[in-house]
């Protein structure tokens, strides 16, 4: 098939592109040009079945040109950082909501299939859940941050286009994805940030008491999930959670990495917009054949071994890592 991946040079997008090429598909990547995008594409940039379009999902003309002549569109490009969204909500609305609108309008015109990467952040804190109760796809969306709200708006916009225009759209809601190539630096994700601090001989910073829990999924498992969705024709109009089904305290992750490097831990004030827990129900995902293969500790070990082999610039990535927006971050 001819497949477009927006954000295809980002963290998740580059791994998905690797997999799609290995399966024999032809892939077009829509991504802004950056040092991190170039690094992420090293393994396939010259592949005969890869085309690269430098541009942003905020540019309607570029989006229409990219979407045309493709069977499937994976829309992964987004701004993703909660902290950054608190200081610059407008850029998140522009990229995540209006960028998705532009993708949807192009899909509406050319009748492609759309697989949209949403996020667990659309759920917020798991409001009113009883002990042992999980977040399934029917849970109310109550995002805590401008980032979460922008993704919730895009998520529901996708659903509205399915209902209004009878488009073939599936919404994937990944939980906390981590692994090789993930962005670090100021607005980086937790595990890469901690590993970078440890490698640099710094204290590992933890915000609040570290009692918040997360359901972490290794990047190879979310790629398997995307491939399952691609092959399944029954998910039209559906949202699907993809997670490990296991929750881990942030404190335990910090302590594990600290013990690996013999590093010290430094506590800082809790951050606004932080979600306390994401207990995922992955029953629907399992019904289509999804089974997570890499647990969090194995995944962290893989990331550490990879990070140790990278030159220093791989830890301090620029602010454009795999986005289709000049200020964005690829979906995590």
Describe this structure in words.
By secondary structure, this protein is of the alpha/beta class. The chain has a domain at 2-178 and 218-245 and 279-292: Rossmann fold (3-Layer(aba) Sandwich). Helices cover 38% and strands 16% of the residues. It is built from 11 helices and 13 strands. The strands form 4 sheets. The chain has a 7-stranded parallel beta sheet, with helices on both faces. Helix 1 (11-22) packs across helix 8 (219-231), helix 3 (60-67) crosses helix 5 and helix 5 (89-110) runs parallel beside helix 6. The longest helix is centred in the first third of the chain and has 22 residues, at 89-110. Residues 3-241 form the NAD-dependent epimerase/dehydratase domain. GO terms for molecular function: carboxy-lyase activity. This is Nucleoside-diphosphate-sugar epimerase.
CATH topology of the domain at 2-178 and 218-245 and 279-292: Rossmann fold
Name of the top-level CATH class of the domain at 2-178 and 218-245 and 279-292 = Alpha Beta
Q: What strand order characterises the main sheet?
A: 3-2-1-4-5-6-11
What multimeric state do the chains show? Answer: single chain
Q: Would you identify the CATH H-level superfamily of the domain at 2-178 and 218-245 and 279-292?
A: NAD(P)-binding Rossmann-like Domain
Q: Distance between the terminal alpha carbons, to the nearest Å?
A: 25 Å
**Secondary-structure element string:** EHEHEHEHHEHEEHEEEHEEHEHH
Q: How large, in whole angstroms, is the Cα Rg?
A: 19 Å
Biggest sheet: strands, sense, closure? Answer: 7 strands, parallel
Percentage of residues assigned to helices: 25-40%
Low-confidence stretches: 313-332
Task: List how many beta strands DSSP finds.
Answer: 13
């Amino acid at each position: 098939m001819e497949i477009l991946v927006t954000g295809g040079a980002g963290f998740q997008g580059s791994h998905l592109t690797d997999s799609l090429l290995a399966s024999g598909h032809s892939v077009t990547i829509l991504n802004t040009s950056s040092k991190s995008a170039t690094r992420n594409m090293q393994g396939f940039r010259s592949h005969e079945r890869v085309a690269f379009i430098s541009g942003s999902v905020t540019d309607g003309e570029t989006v229409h040109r990219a979407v045309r002549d493709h069977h499937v569109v994976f829309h992964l490009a987004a701004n993703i950082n909660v902290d950054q969204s608190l200081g610059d909500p407008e850029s998140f609305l522009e990229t995540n909501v209006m960028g998705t609108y532009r993708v949807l309008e192009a899909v509406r015109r050319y009748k492609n299939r759309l697989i949209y990467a949403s996020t667990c952040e659309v759920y917020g804190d798991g409001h009113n859940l009883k002990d042992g109760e999980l977040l399934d796809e029917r849970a109310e969306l109550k995002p805590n941050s401008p980032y979460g709200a922008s993704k919730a708006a895009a998520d529901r916009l996708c659903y509205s286009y399915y209902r209004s225009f009878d488009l073939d759209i599936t919404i994937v809601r990944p939980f906390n994805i981590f692994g090789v190539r993930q962005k670090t630096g100021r607005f980086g994700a937790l595990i890469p940030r901690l590993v970078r601090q440890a490698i640099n001989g710094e204290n590992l910073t933890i915000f609040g008491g570290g009692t918040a829990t997360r359901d972490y999924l290794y990047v190879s498992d979310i790629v398997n999930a995307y491939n399952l969705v691609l092959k399944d024709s029954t998910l039209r109009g559906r949202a699907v959670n993809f997670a490990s089904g296991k929750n881990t305290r942030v404190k335990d992750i910090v302590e594990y990495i600290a013990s690996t490097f013999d590093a010290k831990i430094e506590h800082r004030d809790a951050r606004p917009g932080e979600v306390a827990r994401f207990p995922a129900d992955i029953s629907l995902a399992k019904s289509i054949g999804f089974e997570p293969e890499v647990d969090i500790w194995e995944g962290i070990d893989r990331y550490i071994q990879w990070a140790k082999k990278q030159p220093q610039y791989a830890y301090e990535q620029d602010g454009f890592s795999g986005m289709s927006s000049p200020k964005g971050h690829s979906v995590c």
